[in-house]
Amino acid sequence: MRFGIKTLDDAQVKGRTVLCRVDINQPVDREKGTLKSINRIEACVPTIKELSDRGAKVVLLAHQGSDIEYGNYYTTRPHAAVLSRLLGKEVHWIDDVCGPAARAAILKLENGGILLLDNVRFVAEEQTLFEMKLRLTHEQQAKTLLVEKLAPLADLYVCDAFAAAHRDQPSLCGFQQVLPSFMGRLFEKEFCTVSQVMEAPVRPCVFVLGGAKISDAFLMMQTVLDRGVADQILTGGLVGNIFLTALGKEIGQGSVDFIMKSNYGEYIERAKELYGRYGGKIVLPADLAWVTDGERHEAALGGVPADIAAVDVGSETAKIYREAILGAKTVFVNGPMGVFEQAPSEAGTKDVWQALADTQAHTVLGGGDSITATEKYGLTDKMGYICTGGGALIRFLTGEELPVVKALRHGATLCEN
Ligand code: ADP
Ligand code: MG
Questions:
Q1: How much is the mean pLDDT over the chain?
Q2: pTM for the predicted model, two decimal places
Q3: What is the 212 CA–ligand 1 centroid distance (Å)?
Q4: Given this model, what pLDDT does residue 96 score?
Q5: Does ligand 1 have an atom closer than 6 angstroms to the CB of 341?
Q6: Is the CB of 92 within 6 Å of ligand 1?
Q7: Which of 55, 121, 260, 269 maximizes the CB count within 10 A of its CB?
Q8: Mean local confidence (pLDDT), 365-388
Q9: Ligand 1 binding pocket includes 368 (Cβ within 6 Å)
Q10: pLDDT for residue 30 is more than 90
């Protein structure tokens, strides 16, 4: 048991049928019928292998694609082929989710056998539109078709899908009402790493917050400051620009126009409040960079020309942030320091990311663009921990109990001991 959830160490799985929800949602090449990336499939191999090696009958539940309008719903058939190759043993697959064919295939499994069902989102109840519209409780989710059809065939439920832990759908939150439930190894690693940062960070604990998801960034800041988790927050990107504007620093009218145009005006007030209360802990950029005609320019605050939008932190700021990161014991990172996608505005992100690679501190990094930057600068192996579950991670850090965490804690109470 860790943080109120049972782990696979607590589970007796031999000869038992285990429903295991994984997140192997990958970009798909629809024309070729292949997957463009397999990193999420690789990440859940340890759990599947362990369950199979320990003699469980393993039934995998997974989604592929978001809601229909995104046009990326797809079968999980290619995933089964990839899994078979990674595991070195056949992973059975069936083009059914919880109908008679799926149930017959589950009943046919032998000890150690693995079956991947088709995309759970082919069942309407699993769709995000359904989730958002109906907001079923976990008790109600236990009465959905998927859970009513599959739970009676199973002995245990395992969730290894931390990346989907902010979703409130039957395959993620319903089974824990009726089956003894556990987290898989990937879920355990991701959830315990971030729980550790929130509950007992090794200090000094520094947050690096940049990027452009302003509402998330402000919720996160509020939570980690109110709870005394963060000793220091280094701001960059649009987050930094909003704080500088709030404090009346001269950062170029173009930057302010950009904030207003993006409807982030209300955050200027919030930034003022937060800074008033926690100013000693919030570090703002000392200089900024902008680009004209493809050329990078830098200036201390006050030196950014009017009509210009600042798109990166300056080199002095990067140096100050580097020192803070090198002196920290824990560093949590979300959001780049600037528009790193373009060469003239990448230096701030590149330098700060290099500091993240060089520090002895335990680094935890999450967010799609933050991970892209890490890959771009070839630093993937140098980071302490890269969280695959961006959305879940951010929701977690805003202080909410994630729906799947809540459900797993309930499912732990149904276990034998
Ligand atoms: P993550 O995906 O890591 O969570 P975000 O999505 O919040 O990060 O932010 C990443 C985006 O923010 C990038 O596309 C980057 O270009 C943009 N960005 C960073 N700094 C600025 C800035 N000063 N002005 C406008 N956009 C910025
Ligand atoms: Mg992003």
A1: 94
A2: 0.85
A3: 4
A4: 98
A5: yes
A6: no
A7: 121
A8: 91
A9: yes
A10: no
